[in-house]
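Project outcomes to date are best conveyed with an example. Our students and postdoctoral researchers have been running inverse folding experiments weekly, and each run begins with a structure described purely in tokens. The record below, which covers 212 residues, was selected by the lab manager from last quarter's runs and is presented without edits.
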């Protein structure tokens, strides 16, 4: 069961989100918070698996809360859900440690998939967010993956989670997540499955790079 905390300063939004998860056998909304400070207090006491986080809130904003959650509760995954997709919003949230970044106009099915992916330690990005990140990494080598990015992608193709990939490569989970975000941007995709598929299509991965 994925234990989910909803964090948004608008009660109507929280009510709508709670309704979106009603009836999902594997997701339970265990609490709500109206700002980042409330989210931190709830996580410290109840330790949910995933925090769905708005960015612009009073008292403590989303980026500040993500930064503290990442430092103090590294096992908790934070999925941003906001109306803002400007570079000034996206990059600080990702750099602070957000596992994924969705926009509030996302279909319910995409939101459910993203929460499940976040609980597994996987990154999911809204298409417009992937485009923003693509613009940041394209200039020096458009579409060219580094050796480390390819190593991470091969492990992902073999079914490795971020945690397993980090262990295999002797790096942190945050490093694996950053490499994956770069891969998504360079390949023009927004999730792991699409990255693997696109890498095979381009010949960056070969059939023997899949599961052992």
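After processing, the design step wrote out the following sequence:
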């Amino acid at each position: 069961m994925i234990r989910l905390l909803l964090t948004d300063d608008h009660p109507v939004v929280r009510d709508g989100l709670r309704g979106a998860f009603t009836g999902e056998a594997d997701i339970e909304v265990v609490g709500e918070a109206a700002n980042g400070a409330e989210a931190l207090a709830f996580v410290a006491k109840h330790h949910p698996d995933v925090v769905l986080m708005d960015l612009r809130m009073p008292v403590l904003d989303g980026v500040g809360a993500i930064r503290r959650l990442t430092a103090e509760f590294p096992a908790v995954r934070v999925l941003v859900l906001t109306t803002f997709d400007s570079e000034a919003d996206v990059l600080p949230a990702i750099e602070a440690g957000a596992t994924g970044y969705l926009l509030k106009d996302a279909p319910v099915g995409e939101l459910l998939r993203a929460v499940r992916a976040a609980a597994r330690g996987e990154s999911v990005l809204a298409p417009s967010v992937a485009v923003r990140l693509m613009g940041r990494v394209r200039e020096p080598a458009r579409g060219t993956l580094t050796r480390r990015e390819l190593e991470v992608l091969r492990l992902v193709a073999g079914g490795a989670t971020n945690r397993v990939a980090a262990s295999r490569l002797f790096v942190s989970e945050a490093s694996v997540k950053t490499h994956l975000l770069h891969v998504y941007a360079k390949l023009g995709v927004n999730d792991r499955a699409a990255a693997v598929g696109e890498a095979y299509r381009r010949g960056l991965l070969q059939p023997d790079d899949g599961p052992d």
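The first strand starts at residue 2 and ends at 7. The chain has two domains: 2-124, 133-209. The training component of this project remains on track.
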